[in-house]
Amino acid sequence: MFKGALFDLDGVIADTSTLHFEAWKKLINNYFSAKLPSDLEEKTKGVSRADSLKVILNYLEVSVSENMFQQLLFEKNEQYKESLKQLSPDNILPGVATFISELKQQKVKLALASSSLNGPLILEKLTLAEKFDAIVDPSKVENGKPAPDIFIAAAQSLNLQPLECIGIEDSIAGLKAIKESGAFSVAIGTNSDLKTADLHLSTTAELTFAAVRTAYHQ
Ligand code: B16
Ligand code: MG
After folding, report:
1. In the prediction, which pLDDT does 30 show?
2. Which amino acids does the record list as binding Mg(2+) (predicted)?
3. DSSP secondary structure string, 96-128?
4. Phi, psi angles (nearest 5°) of residue 123
5. Residue 184 parent element (H or E)
6. Is 117 in the pocket of ligand 1 (CB under 6 A)?
7. 4 — phi, psi (to 5°)?
8. Residue 179, SS3?
9. Which of the 8 DSSP states describes residue 162?
10. pLDDT given for residue 175 in this prediction
11. Do 67 and 75 contact (CB within 8 A), yes or no?
């Protein structure tokens, strides 16, 4: 049996991933009068704020000064934090609260492996913070997703090996990170690249302890 569960946050625990992209769209419209295509959202999922901005500037074929780059990061986060003001336990994705309770009952340890610097604030707002045994600070991790570092650090924070853990992700970058860490991968979403996970589910509503345990033992 697995002993640890390493959770991504945006798009797995809470429905906040669209809020990130909404904030980027607004910012880029304000600064560059440009529209971002919806397929760019997947490329900004799971990766750090700075890496997301690099993806976007690359798409726009614009280069900016370091000062401007920092200003854009700051403003995107201000915009994002504004949208988080409305966040409540209602934003926990379907099935996730029950899944977390099941894991706790089974004495599985929980760690957060989110790229988001806003992770602790979001868990507080969702009233889930006390359920987690550890929260990895993404600023202390050398390489962001798709590198495996944050999932390795999350397992370590529970005094476990990645092999003893499951990792749960909604992004392609995050799935790659879980696989490289050696943890059992659970991917959630409809993108076809997510189907390479050890267990692929279309939505969090299918995320149950029974489903994961069965897949883990196969
Ligand atoms: P922040 P996750 C990621 O969270 C988001 O998917 C990604 O879109 C965002 O750029 C990144 O967090 C950084 O977030 O700007 O709040 O520090 O999916 O790894 O939980
Ligand atoms: Mg995510």
Report:
1. 97
2. 8, 10, 169-170
3. HHHHHHHHHHTT-EEEE--S-TTHHHHHHHTT-
4. -60, -40
5. strand 184-188
6. yes
7. -135, 150
8. helix
9. G
10. 98
11. no
Ligand 1 atom, smallest distance to 52 CA: 10
Q: Does residue 76 contact residue 49 with C-beta atoms inside 8 Å?
A: yes
pTM of the model: 0.96
What confidence score (pLDDT) does residue 104 get? Answer: 98
| Kind of pairing between the strands at 134-135 and 109-112 | parallel
Token digits of residue 188: 């959630």
Are 188 and 203 within 8 A, CB to CB?
yes
**Could you tell me which of 156, 96, 87, 90 has the C-alpha nearest to residue 116?**
87
Q: Ligand 2 centroid vs 164 CA: distance in angstroms?
A: 21
Tell me how many degrees the CA angle 35-86-203 measures, rounded to the nearest 5.
Answer: 70
Cβ(76) – ligand 1 distance below 6 Å: no
| Mean of per-residue pLDDT scores for the chain | 97
pLDDT value at residue 209 = 98
Residue identified by tokens 């590198």 is 147
For residue 165, the surrounding DSSP H or E stretch is strand 165-169
What pLDDT score does 143 carry? 97
Q: Is 114 a pocket residue for ligand 1 (Cβ < 6 Å)?
A: yes
